[in-house]
Design brief:
484 residues; 0% strand; 20 helices; 82% helix
């Protein structure tokens, strides 16, 4: 776990810096200096682009990671990498043509409830394409076990761009229309920078001598489109569907609460950047012992971190909402349901990596399609009935069912489980901290209240983890820190 812990720590640090910048943008700049209508519009554009991204990427990011380690000779790798660069165009070109010919139809569909969205179909396509090729070049770097720079570009670059644009908007130097155009430009520039970095690690040599197993590669890529789309649909479809049922301002309110809960997913996102190629390597070598060890350790480590983040957020939420404008308060249940889904997701460790890099990916993708449909149906049912809380419950329900199925499937096919006795010890520790700190309230400034309660909770949590050596990896990190 050495390389995993090292790069995971670096990625986690970078991702939290990105989230800190995002917090300034989301909780202060957007909420105070942009009309909720336009903030909601930007969220719809970015969410719709994210939903489109897996289709335009043609499954290449996952395919790169899965198959690259199986090619040992440079000639075979050159043909494979050339194929990976060309595949996305198979869907980018027809989608671009459809966007051009059916621009009004697509615009009318997206703007049924909110006409403001109608004129931004091309923005969605261009950002989606930039996101797709960014992920391709990011995967290109990850197969070389270089995930940190790509994570920096993914988590920080566009957020800093938004900060600059929001400050210019606050100073009335730019308009909202210019803001949206410039934001689109940042996504394109990010993709180009990632391309240059990926090529610096391995310059492609065009070779149309494609691998002998090209049919298997194409089949996997096509199926991963479905898998990638499923994950994104479960994550982003709620914002897109809120736009179709209630006023677009509500997308802004929901996004703020959702952003707060998404902090829980940061460690998981960071660790997966490096565990994904390791999992592929273990599966290609049929090293079941290492796979089992990675599964258990990734699950325990992520649960330890995600669990305490969930409690820190919930138990400090009232103080946090005091500092937000009135319209953005009252999202406690949104944070609860989305946060709970993220904790469960973290508990599964590298489950996704195992499934998508194994020979059983087809069955899991089938489950994913059914559950993506279920997520849409849940939203269709719950948003009109319960509004924003309904969207959060729909997201939790879809994630809960999807993750439970994946957990059972890996257990059945590989005879491994992420849970150990330490998992239940951590659960008991979290429950104890929740009970002890639930009623603890300070009467100082909200920021000071959050800092004091958080420090007390973290000190007790880490103290117990260290004293009883519940996790070898966490104990090792704490020991090194204490020695320094």
């Amino acid at each position: 776990m050495g390389i995993v812990l090292k790069q995971s720590f670096q990625n986690t640090l970078i991702t939290y810096i990105g989230f800190a910048i995002g917090a300034v943008n989301t909780l202060f700049l957007y909420t105070n200096f942009m009309d909720p209508k336009y903030y909601g519009l930007i969220q719809v554009i970015l969410s719709a682009s994210a939903v489109l991204m897996p289709l335009l990427a043609f499954g290449v990011p996952n395919t790169l990671v899965k198959f690259y380690s199986s090619f040992e000779k440079n000639d075979g790798q050159d043909g494979f990498l050339t194929l990976m660069l060309l595949l996305p165009f198979m869907l980018i070109l027809p989608v671009a043509l459809i966007s051009y010919l059916a621009n009004d139809t697509i615009g009318n569909l997206l703007s049924r409830e909110n006409p403001i969205v109608k004129d931004y179909v091309w923005h969605i396509f261009i950002i989606g394409m930039a996101m797709a090729y960014f992920e391709v070049f990011y995967a290109w770097a990850r197969i070389k076990m270089k995930s940190v720079f790509g994570n920096f570009m993914k988590e920080i670059f566009c957020r800093v761009g938004q900060t600059v644009l929001l400050i210019l908007l606050m100073l009335e130097i730019i308009t909202v229309d210019f803001f949206i155009m410039a934001l689109m430009g940042f996504y394109v520039i990010r993709m180009l920078i990632m391309k240059l970095y990926a090529y610096s690690l391995r310059m492609p040599k065009l070779s149309f001598d494609f691998p002998k197993n090209v049919k298997d590669i194409l089949k996997y890529s096509a199926l991963i489109i479905v898998g990638g789309s499923t994950a994104i649909i479960l994550l982003e479809i709620d914002k897109v569907m809120i736009n179709n049922f209630i006023k677009i301002e509500n997308v802004a309110y929901y996004s703020v609460a959702g952003f707060i809960a998404m902090v829980i997913a940061v460690p998981s996102r960071s660790m997966h950047q490096i565990t994904y190629p390791l999992t592929a390597e273990y599966l290609n070598k049929n090293d079941r012992a290492s796979l089992k060890r990675l599964y258990e350790k990734s699950s325990l480590t992520l649960f330890i971190v995600a669990g305490i983040l969930f409690l820190l957020i919930l138990l400090n939420l009232n103080d946090l909402y005091v500092m937000l404008p009135d319209d953005y308060r009252g999202g406690f249940m949104i944070v609860f349901w989305i946060g709970l889904a993220k904790v469960y997701d973290s508990l599964l460790g590298n489950n996704n990596s195992i499934l998508y890099n194994s020979n059983f990916y087809l069955s899991v993708l089938t489950f994913g399609v059914l559950l993506a449909i279920m997520a849409v149906l849940f939203n269709l049912w719950l948003i009109p009935k319960y509004g924003l809380n309904g969207a959060a419950i729909a997201s939790f329900s879809a994630f809960f069912i999807y993750n439970t199925i994946k957990l059972i499937y890996v257990q059945k096919k590989f005879d491994i489980s992420p849970f150990t006795s330490e998992t239940f010890k951590v659960f008991g520790l979290l429950a104890m901290i929740a009970i002890l700190f639930y009623s603890l309230q300070f009467s100082f400034h909200p920021i000071l209240n959050i800092i004091l309660k958080s420090l007390l909770m973290i000190a007790m949590y880490l103290g117990v983890l260290y004293r009883f050596k519940i996790s070898e990896d966490v104990f090792g990190v704490l020991s090194k820190f204490l020695r320094k």
